Amino acid sequence: MSENNKPPQDVVGGGQEAAGYRKFTIVNPGSQEESSPLDWWDQMANAGSAPTPEPEAATAAPAPEPIEEPRAPSPELPVKCEPPVTELLADRAIHLQKVAALQIRPDRPPTQNGLALAIGDAFSRRIGYVYQIAMWRLWDGRRWPDDHKGQMVQVAQMTLEALATDNPHHKRSAFASLERAPAINGALSLAATDPRLVMDAAIFDADPTILNTPGGIVNIKALSIGPHRADAFCTHLAGATPDFEADAPVYERFMLSISDDRPELAAWLEALIGYALLGVKNLQIFVFLVGSGGNGKSVLLALILAIFGSYACTVSADVLLDHQNSSRGGPAPELLDLIGRRFVCASETDEGARLNLGRIKAISGGDQIVCRAMRSNIMHKFVAQFLLVLATNAPPRIGRVDNATKRRFRMMPFDRVFEGPERDDNILTKLLEEKEAILGRWVKAAHAVLKSGQLPPCKIIDQTGGDFLTEEDPITRWIGECAVLEPGATTPAGDLYRSFTAWQEREGTKTWSMHAFGRSLTEHGCAARKMGIVYREGLRLL
Q1: pLDDT tens digits for 183-216?
Q2: How many domains does the chain have?
Q3: Same domain (yes/no): 444, 500
Q4: Helix-strand-coil split of the chain, %, nearest 5
């Protein structure tokens, strides 16, 4: 067995479980009392530096205890997770001061496995490996962002420096081989299986009624702001802290203007944005923002993206479109990036493009979305916490309009075009000067939607969406051209289906199955009746 693959000969403790994490004990020099890693860290933080360990008397080596298989820990963490990892890495003075204070067992061997265990010793409450998405996350004092900057390499290097400095068991030269990139990467791969570091994706962003902001965590139910907490497991951060008392006159004029001076529509739009702030989407709706350029739609989206911060993002419209030749089961990093978001917007589709209604219904309907990361065989499932919005000049084709589509679909019209004196090229800058007050209003709107369980009624939204679906519905269009609704009429279902598929071929659209056609006729009130053959009532061909 090679040196790097030898099991560790130095693990002390184990057996006890605390908040889902293995408890390792450290025997302080000159004392027979055992202390937890948190006690050790607190002592070192208060003292400002670590005492130099004295060589221990020779004792029988404890039985080896290799890193266990990954498992999901409890979401509970000790509140004290300070200082944040990013603070240690960014500030060299703090780095040098705290390296010696890292709660690392000094007798970890100079192997990749020893370095992996030392990383768990030092950072088990401030880093975690989320195995479903094959990603490290680091507590930065406000949230748990993904490590896209290679900070875990710095964590490993910092741990190695602490392990090799003034080590009473091994000479510094024994750790030299671990300074190479392959050794660092190998140690990180081993650390990713340490049960003290393994974390389940499900514990992150789990509370739908809190919003993480620069000034603290907002409780939407209580309309209050509390301190940041590692055990809240927030991965996102808003772009502002709400001010519940400040006025926002520019914002109020802007919302009324883009609603074409219709207060009912402006109120509905603000409630919709508030609904988006919530991490639970029980209304199961998706929204089209439709209108030509120069109508304030792009400014509104830019404002939402800025104030929502990382809770919002844009995606390519291709994610929502129906691609006949798309592969199934392949990597879908664009879907993984949507985990924990509250607002997702796709912009501009090609004219005549057809939506993937199955995916949109799954996203808005609370179904589990299945995807996997690049270079990972683990299929990850999550439920969307975000409001799905499509902003476009010309809405795409929907295809089959069933009752589920009618129930979930909303269309916000942007009818007013701002030209000449009405156009303000600096309006976004002016709005962002009120961002704290605006977020305060949006949080209050979220609180109202959470309390009532619905958006306020709006006849304009109902009429606009209804008119669009009527024009988009193939059955309605076919009836308008090839048949007539007539009480008492009966027509063989086969004749109706042949007429409909011929019409679809002329339209250049995909032919429906007989089952889909019949189900849609039933939804339109044309019941089936069997008299030797199946007839449809209330419909006659021209």
Answers
A1: 999 999 999 999 999 999 999 999 999 999 999 9
A2: 3
A3: no
A4: 40, 15, 45
